[in-house]
Recover the amino acids of this structure.
């Protein structure tokens, strides 16, 4: 984090890697990556953010359906391993 902040203050970019195939080995831009959700998912959108109260990442997604759709939530301690998503029923 210190390197990221120092680079930002002097206008330099910082190299990032992303998770793929069991390790953080792929460059942050381009190359290979994994899907946070199943490729066949019918999610309309999803967003991920860190929740201080839970101390975990929270993924909220929306799945369209003829009756208007539903919202879903899943949590993760590390951004790689996700709990089964829960439906927020109306």
């Amino acid at each position: 984090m210190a390197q990221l902040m120092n680079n930002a203050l002097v206008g330099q970019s910082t190299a990032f890697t992303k998770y793929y195939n069991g390790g953080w080995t792929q460059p942050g831009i381009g190359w290979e990556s994994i899907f946070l959700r199943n490729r066949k998912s019918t999610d309309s959108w999803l967003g991920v953010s860190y929740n201080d109260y839970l101390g975990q990442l929270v993924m909220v997604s929306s799945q369209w359906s003829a009756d208007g759709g539903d919202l879903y939530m899943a949590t993760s301690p590390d951004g790689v391993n996700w709990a089964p998503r829960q439906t927020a029923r109306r």
